[in-house]
Design goal:
This protein is an alpha+beta fold and 148 residues long. The protein is built from three helices and seven strands; from the N terminus they run αβαββββββα. The protein has two domains: 33 residues; 113 residues, Nucleic acid-binding proteins (OB fold (Dihydrolipoamide Acetyltransferase, E2P), Beta Barrel), CATH 2.40.50. It has a five-stranded mixed barrel.
């Protein structure tokens, strides 16, 4: 093989390796990306069924139901316009309460129930995740427009 061909082969294999590395990194980012949806977006079928995402809003008053196993909890997340039932098995955060902000990560089942793998509660009186606050504000605006 001529030196010129060796150089071209080395460059071609280097470009191929770099392309493969970029493809693997982008694939890893895509598979670890978790999107946020409000209950209104989930009700409008904008959320993926069977794929992991986050849902956020307020825990509806009077909706928390603990199962007899002691670790499974059913509750409803609302953005004041729509509601989505959530089932979570595990230990809830200490600040998880009715009427307070919550973000749950999990998957939407075919029956319309969100099966959460993780539940996050706000950590003080003034905090709410920006996505959840924005979704609540958007639902409030839509509700106001619809009642006029």
């Amino acid at each position: 093989m001529k030196p010129r061909h060796k150089k071209l082969a080395i460059i071609a294999s280097g470009v191929t390796a770099l392309g493969l590395a970029v493809a693997l990194v982008l694939n890893a980012f895509e598979s670890n990306m978790v999107f946020f949806f409000s209950p209104s977006q989930v009700a409008a079928n904008e959320a993926p069924v069977g794929k992991s995402f986050r849902i956020g809003g307020l825990v509806e008053e009077g909706s928390i139901r603990r199962q007899s196993d002691g670790v499974t909890v059913k509750f409803i997340v609302t953005d004041t316009a729509k509601v989505i039932p959530v089932v979570y098995t595990g230990i809830l955060p200490d600040l998880f309460k009715e009427g307070k902000g919550v973000v749950a990560q999990g998957k939407l089942a075919a029956d319309g129930v969100f099966r959460a793998d993780e539940v996050l509660a706000k950590h003080d009186e003034n905090y709410m995740p920006p996505e959840a606050a924005g979704a609540l504000e958007q639902a409030r605006i839509q509700k106001t427009v619809m009642t006029k």
